[in-house]
Amino acid sequence: MANTLDSSSAAPFRVVLVCVGNEYLGIGHLSAALKAANFDVRAVVDESLFDDKNYVTIPFMARFFNQLDKVVAEIIALDPNLVGFSVITPTYRRCLEIAQNLKQRLDVPVIFGGVHPSALPERTLKNACVDMVCQGEGQEALVELALAMSTKQLRTDIANLWFKQNGNIIANPMRSQIRDINTLPIIDKTVFENQAPLDDYYLMLTSWGCPYSCNFCAVTFLGNVSMSLSAHKLRPQSVESAIAELEYYKAKYNFKWVQFLTNVFSADKKWTLDFLDAYEKRIGIPYKITTHVKKVDDEIAAALVRTGCDMVQIGIESFSEEVRRTYLNRFESNNDIRHCIASLDKYGLRYSFDYIFGLPGQNEQEIQEAMEFFLSCQHLVRLTPFWLSYFPKTPMVTVGLNHGMIHEADIEAMEEGEHTSCLTTGSITDKKLIRTIQNYRIFFRLFPILPRRLTKYLIRKRSYRFFYLMPVEFLVLIVDILVSLKLRDVAAISYLHSYYWHIRKRWKKR
Q1: 240-291: per-residue pLDDT in tens?
Q2: What is the DSSP string of 421-490?
Q3: Which terminus of the chain has a lower count of CB atoms within 10 Å, N or C?
Q4: Angle at which helices 408-415 and 395-402 pack, to 10 degrees?
């Protein structure tokens, strides 16, 4: 990737890109493409404190920190010619709220893009505040649109874009995907200056897509789109391109650690080992990865430890092979899980597990067996319980319908973005099931810091059955803070720091 980002000669046509929660890497790539075409680009992050659509949900605090009017005012003050929103299903309602308020105060074209509008372009366009939708990748389409608008051309034939005209929807075909992402300009992180604490951590994707097709994951929808366009599901950066990106921005921001958001970091063993060798020599700071149990062995674990990996995040999702195979399209065995953990434990590498509650076929025996297994994991430092959440056009929606777990009304609500985050109650509506899951949720959060003898006692006596009587959301937050501090979890501590950074930023503006 080229390593220059010069907007000094940018044309007066200005694009403002908006996201909710935190820095979105997609916006960085869109900004880079637009700046390469000589457009002025700014970003606005609605951090949505205490309802960040990612981790923290505390309603009364969210109401206190709600800055909708200020976010809209910030967009207007930038005097945009075009406003784009990067949208995922959990942020869809909030993005509509911002766009509606913006449209009431400023006559400016609004385009929605991201996985949710890409899955539901027609539904998204039914909102009066949305003028256009970008379906799929936007680097080329958005540049074409900005070029047309800046030269007063009224084009509605741009591939990947959907338009509204005279009450009708114009749906254009999708263009071929970018096959080699190394040909793209370097991601633009400068667009997030004063919007995120760039000197603390660096968020990075070393590849686009995922080699797997889990039924519940929105990335599976995107992978299916890629295959329909005769593109590869997984598109990696070269080792040199990835390292050059890190070097460029480390020199600029001097961040303290890196979080690789790559879905399966070690998908390609040779690439991983080559990258880690270069990372150790040229970057040399702590990092965190996410990977799959079948992509970890002794050689990978040893390389991760040697090069400063602080933690490995692994999606177990269910400890029942039948549930994983039948409902999640996951074919790893429990022995695969054990072999992966044996390698990580052998080299003393810390790891966390993701686990989904509310799955069809899930029962107490499965969870009991899972907890017994967790007790044997020597360097397990975090258990993250997720609620089953349905996302548009994913195979899990069909699974839920077939098993009577959701109905058409639930799908309507989900597509309108009315389900809560997968870390609150997700798509679960059954009150008895919610109560049961709340018990496990608190127990899972406590698991890493409880004495093993007490944990075994609680499992044997099933004392966790009454945890739901506690103030769940507040308790989970407090427990997570304690766990993070005790374990010196750099990712979680940085998350806390980002809240402090945003609150301090808000206070300074008063």
Answers
A1: 999 999 999 999 999 999 999 999 999 999 999 999 999 999 999 999 999 9
A2: -TTTTTT---HHHHHHHHHHHHHHHHGGGS-HHHHHHHHHHTGGGGGGGS-HHHHHHHHHHHHHHHHT-H
A3: C
A4: 150
Residues in the chain: 510
pTM over 0.85: yes
Please check whether residue 179 lies inside any domain of the structure.
Answer: no
Answer whether residue 417 is part of any domain: no
404 part of a folded domain: no
108 sits in the region (left: phi over 0; alpha: psi -120 to 50; else beta) called: beta
Asked whether residue 116 is assigned to any structural domain, the reply reads yes
- Position 104 scores a pLDDT of 97
| Domain CATH code at residue 162 | 3.40.50.280
138 and 235 both lie in a single domain: no
Range of the domain at 148: 14-171
Looking at the fold, whether 309 and 432 belong to one and the same domain comes out as yes
Within 10 angstroms of residue 164's Cβ, the number of other Cβ atoms is: 16
**331-352 per-position pLDDT tens digit:** 999 999 999 999 999 999 999 9
Question: Both 245 and 375 in a single domain?
Answer: yes
235 membership: H or E segment, kind and range: strand 234-236
Beta pairing partners, 112:
85, 133
Long-range contacts at 495-500 (CB < 8 A, ≥ 24 apart): 495/55, 497/197, 497/200, 498/22, 498/196, 498/197, 498/200, 499/49, 499/56
